[in-house]
Write a structure and sequence with these properties.
There is one protein chain. This protein is mainly alpha-helical. The protein has helices at about 5-35, 40-70, 70-90. The chain has one domain (about 1-95). It is built from 3 helices and no strands. The longest helix is centred in the N-terminal third of the chain and has 30 residues, at about 5-35.
Length: about 100
C-alpha cells in the first residue's frame, strides 16, 4: 500500500491496468462478434489461434525494440498502436461494408 503513495507508481499502475483490461477484453468482444455473425465455435477457436499466433510472432521483434529504445516510449507507442488497431476492428466486419 505504501507504493500507492507515489504519484509515478499510481500513474503506471492505472495505465497498465487500463491497458490490460483492453487487451484481454478485445478477444472476448471478437468472439461474441463472430458468434453474432453466425460463426461457429470452431471459428471462434480459429480466431483465438490467429490472435495468439500474431502475439507470439511479434514477441521477438518487440523484445529487440524494447532493448534498444527507451522503455517509456515503447510502452506508450505499443499501447497507442494497440488502441488504434482494436478501435479499427469493428470496421473489418462484413456488416460494416
Amino acid at each position: 500500500m505504501e507504493a500507492l503513495g507515489d504519484r509515478n507508481f499510481r500513474l503506471l499502475f492505472a495505465g497498465r491496468a487500463i491497458s490490460y483490461f483492453g487487451t484481454y477484453l478485445a478477444p472476448i468482444a471478437v468472439a461474441f462478434a463472430i458468434l453474432d455473425l453466425g460463426g461457429s465455435a470452431t471459428e471462434v477457436g480459429l480466431s483465438f489461434a490467429a490472435w495468439t499466433i500474431a502475439q507470439v510472432s511479434t514477441l521477438a521483434f518487440g523484445g529487440v525494440i524494447g532493448d534498444r529504445l527507451p522503455r517509456r516510449a515503447v510502452m506508450i507507442a505499443s499501447d497507442l498502436m494497440r488502441a488504434v488497431l482494436v478501435a479499427l476492428l469493428p470496421f473489418t466486419s462484413p456488416r460494416s461494408r
